[in-house]
Design brief:
Layout lengths: L5 H11 L21 H10 L4 E5 L14 E5 L9 E13 L5 E12 L5 E7 L5 H11 L3 E3 L18 E3 L2 H4 L2 E5 L2 E4 L7 E4 L2 E5 L11 H10 L11 H4 L5 H12 L22 E4 L8 H10 L3 E2 L9 E4 L5 H9 L4 E3 H10 L15 H11 L13 H4 L13
Parallel strand pairs: 12-13, 12-14, 14-15
Antiparallel strand pairs: 1-2, 3-4, 3-7, 3-8, 4-5, 6-7, 8-11, 9-10
């Protein structure tokens, strides 16, 4: 069924799931029209307790574990006027991990604020909304003040084991960083001592103009929870905020328009730049070739709507390399969590203006997950994907390129 379009899959699902079942049902779907605009569909979904919408082309197929231009999300926090911004103090940080399980720098921030008695309380962990430049800037600011967390030490805030960070910001009231955060909403929490936390929080910007004395207090957060506009009623937004509210079309821009199929068909021109078909997919460019350098390929990925990482994870779409062997290649194969594709694959994607299937070209290495997905889609024999072991010499030799910098 993976190769069948959305409409065919839904029809089969509806004929299989009994309508009177109290345990499982087929989720509702809507099609935008003049009488039922997209804003009305979003309002209906929010009123029924959903986070938002997943907008899909009706002829799209399901691609396991991958983002594609045919599906896109639309949630309440994409509309600025629905969600108030909150200023929080960074009090801790967690490290990410690379494919070799080595520390790969700060990727999550533990943030808090003060209650009416001046007690510092953790409120949320922030792990999205940053770009590479912003995260590097945050690391530089926090690095002198970060100390490894220890259960034996005493800190200016208390956290349960489930919230313990890798690092704490020493004397955060004086040296900490204030950041502006936006979330879908504010919800009660049994985990955070504040009694509340932020749902789907994301970083907006650093606030160097503010210090610990000018945070959004816990009392103000609770007031925001009680007084914020009803996200199920887009018409309840105060007039003062209407001026800065983006229309739904502007919020999702070309990404949404493409998902709805309202954009004209792409030109067959071989021009490699200026399109957005990569749709925020993440790539790691290891090695360029004689024609396309690593830097040039990274620029093409960004200019076509993709993202670049130097430390691939399971969420990375693919590692791109002109080499099939080498210590870095073998380390990624050994981890077995991300596909390795040749430079020619990426160039063909740019030339055709679309994301080619991973079965449409040669590959250097495919994860078991990808191989199984290809088998299910095309019923082709399993492609050899044995994980090559590095030689004894390679295993005992490391370089600066193989060990990510352990910065904060």
């Amino acid at each position: 069924m993976l190769s069948q379009p959305l409409d065919a899959r839904r029809q089969l699902l509806k004929s299989t799931i009994r309508g009177d079942s109290e345990y499982i049902r087929v989720v509702d779907d809507w099609s935008p029209s003049a009488s039922l605009p997209l804003s009305g569909i979003l309002e209906t979904a929010l009123s029924q307790g959903y986070e938002g919408l997943v907008i899909k082309k009706r002829n799209s197929i399901y691609v396991p574990g991958q983002r594609t231009p045919e599906w896109t999300k639309l949630k309440a926090d994409y509309i600025e006027a629905i969600c108030d911004d909150i200023d929080l103090l960074v009090i801790g940080a967690d490290l990410g991990r690379s494919v070799s399980n080595a520390p790969a720098g700060i990727c999550t921030l533990l943030c808090g604020t003060f209650d009416k008695d001046g007690k510092l309380l953790p409120v949320a962990r922030i792990g999205s909304g940053f770009n590479f430049k912003e995260l590097s800037h945050i690391r530089q600011i926090l690095s002198p003040s970060l100390k490894p967390f220890s259960r034996m030490a005493s800190y200016e805030f208390e956290v349960p084991r489930s919230l313990e960070p890798d690092f704490v910001v020493e004397d955060s009231k004086k040296t900490g960083l204030v950041i502006q955060v936006r979330a879908t909403n504010i919800i009660p929490s049994d985990v955070y001592a504040a009694g509340y936390t932020l749902r789907f929080p994301r970083f907006i910007r650093c606030r160097p103009d503010k210090d610990a004395s000018s945070l959004t207090s816990l009392g103000e957060i609770i007031e925001l929870k009680d007084k914020s506009p009803n996200v199920t009623d887009l018409g309840s937004i105060p007039e003062s905020k209407v001026k800065r509210m983006k229309t739904l079309k502007k919020v999702v821009g070309k990404k949404l328009a493409e998902a709805l199929g309202s954009l004209p068909a792409r030109s067959s021109s071989p021009t490699l730049e200026g399109r957005s078909f990569l749709n925020d997919l993440e790539f790691c460019i290891l090695y360029g070739d004689e024609t396309h350098t690593k830097g040039a390929l990274e620029s093409l990925v960004r200019s076509n709507g993709g993202r670049i990482t130097q430390n691939p994870t399971a969420f990375t779409y693919a590692v791109i390399s002109s080499k099939e062997n080498g210590l870095r290649i073998e380390n990624i194969k050994k981890a077995g969590i991300v596909d390795i594709l040749p430079v020619s694959y990426l160039i063909r994607c740019f030339e055709q203006g679309r994301i080619l299937g991973k079965g449409e070209c040669d590959s250097i290495f495919l994860t078991r997950r990808t191989v199984l997905a290809l088998q299910m889609e095309k019923n082709v024999p399993e492609k050899e994907h044995e994980e090559s072991s590095a030689s004894d010499e390679d295993q005992s030799t490391t370089t600066d390129d193989d060990i990510p910098e352990k910065d904060f």
